[in-house]
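thoughts on both lines:
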Amino acid sequence: MAETVKAVVQKVVRDGKHPYVVAIPEQGGESITITLEKRVWRESEDPNPGEIVLLSKIRKNRRGWRAMRGRFLQPSDEQPAKEQ
């Protein structure tokens, strides 16, 4: 899995003690979950289904892929690198 992944939010699960998001990479592949705890999700608002997010520090455990850092995609993320 790439170091940083652009993913589309599929669902937001808020019931229970630990709210989390399930997202699918734009390139396809297995779903990735991310907790909405402030130490991991770096935004003041929760994402909604259909929004594109950037996930990083991705790990695999016995239950699937987990992102240890996430945020919303921003316009600057879409701009090509400037030539030097």
Remarks:
- The chain has one helix and five strands.
- The helical segments are 75-78.
- The first strand starts at residue 4 and ends at 13.
- The first helix runs from residue 75 to 78.
